[in-house]
């Protein structure tokens, strides 16, 4: 079953066409890497998939719902309920502790539950750092905290933007281990990365160049129109 | 942790994180609250304070006989006076005017309750002493100059009682009074002394009343007297009451103007601070939206921060406003100010309203922030 389908998606900013006719399907439980050079349209594609921007043309179907023409409020609800975001810059809230950074995602979703937030921290090995502020955590710990926050509302899709871009090798390995664990549990993961090493961990890789999809490693084996 | 606890945590932690900037906004609201409550308290107390000040200018209400009567009974006057609020009544002085003769020349002699006159006419200046006995008199300045009277001298008056024969009476002048008004042309003596000479006690031609109240209040009291004691006719001394009303109206405009300007400046300061905070926190707002915060949640958080500031500033302003009002009242009127509790509530309300108004534009800007900016690294 496809959790995500893009049909002929284009994104146009004034005279600039950031994405051109992207057609892509992602199966539930799949780990997809999106690769490409700077300016290739990776972030634009991620914004569209993550319901933070609307495509200029084409349709996007997420978890069976066409989100292409939803308004900002509806897109916020989709993000809140179905998507877990992981950022290269971590984007933690500086004045909240680690556990509160997780709880704030619960708070916007439904109800803050400290016990559950602590379990999420334990899952990424941060239970001992729950009362620390982000500035008191290392880069790797901050990224793990970001992952805990992304997972707390049981999203249908985990979207990670260069999740290891700011990490050393050890921390990169820790984060990728967590992704492997999530993938093994059936989570759908889309990772945007420059790094072939990180992309190699994904089950499938697509490449973008100048807004076009150049290459889809999975297509060679199972084209999207062949179903799941 | 329930929603309210989490909300409070977010709001308070955010305020604490930017305490220096928020301190500026807090001080702005505090100063606004100080001026609002201070001016409000002074303005609320001004009629009381000014009323007392104006009492030094003499009576502001007089009682005269109703209809064609030439005099009124002191009993009716007492009934009328009893209708006035005791705590606002400065004094009531009955005057009875009679004509006596000095060297065949008619003089007006006013019999008055001179103890009460000292309260209702505090502006009288007496050279010498006030009469201590019923046979001592005060000579008005003009009379004293005309017939050469002075403190310690005596004057012999020829008296023509309504019933009985004319007779002469020598009265001692205890002092000379200068009022700047009609009294300068009178001989003033205790009412009892006049009654002893002329008989017909318990009557007066006019009762002068000094009451610490505004013109509007006095009008209402006069209406009541007219209704309850028809034997007397109350009249406002327009000159005094109108001056008082004019001064109060001007002070009212001044207070409104100063308060409005200060609240406007407070609004500008709070608005600027909130706008700066929103601009500084665009990335955080974008992040919150990216992880699922709707516009309502963003508005609630910023308004929560603003209202917390407003409440703290309002409480701060109420305390310092009270001391401000005390200082103003003590330096201007020489008396402390009384602070009604509703003014504190009004100050908190004004602080909240000003902060809400000042936050409207910044909060709208906050809702305009796009979640995508967190991915663009802006």
Structure write-up:
Chain A has 228 residues and is α/β, with parallel strands linked by helices. Chain A has a single domain (29-56, 71-216), classed as Rossmann fold (3-Layer(aba) Sandwich). Chain A has helices at residues 42-49, 72-82, 98-109, 114-123, 139-151, 169-184, 196-199; strands spanning 2-13, 16-27, 31-36, 57-62, 65-66, 83-86, 157-161, 188-193, 204-209, 212-216. A six-stranded mixed beta sheet of chain A has the order 6-7-8-3-9-10, with helices on both faces. In chain A, helix 6 links the parallel strand 7 and strand 8. The longest helix of chain A has 16 residues, at 169-184. The N and C termini of chain A lie close together (5 Å). Residues 219-228 of chain A have low confidence and may be disordered. The model of chain B has no long low-confidence stretch (mean pLDDT 88). With 378 residues, chain B is an alpha+beta fold. In chain B, the strands form two sheets. In chain B, strands 1, 3, 4, 5, 6, 7, 8, 9, 11 and 12 form a ten-stranded mixed beta sheet that branches. The A-B interface holds A 43, 46-47, 50, 52-53, 73, 76-77, 79-81, 85, 87-89, 91, 93-96, 100, 103-105, 107-109, 111-114, 149, 153, 161 and B 1-3, 5-7, 9-10, 13-14, 16-17, 283-284, 287-295, 297, 370-372, 374-377.
Largest sheet of chain B: 10 strands, mixed
Query: Which strand-content bin applies to the residues of chain A?
Result: 25-35%
**What is the chain-wise order of helices and strands of chain B?**
HHEEHEEHEEHEEEHEEHEHHHHH
Which pair of protein chains has the largest interface, and what are the residue counts?
A: A-B, 35 and 31 residues
Shape of chain B: rod-shaped
How far is it from the N-terminal to the C-terminal residue of chain B, by CA?
Answer: 33 Å
Sheet-strand content of chain B, in percent, reads: 15-25%
Structural class of chain B: alpha+beta
| Secondary structure: helix percent of chain A | 25-40%
State Rg of chain A: 17 Å
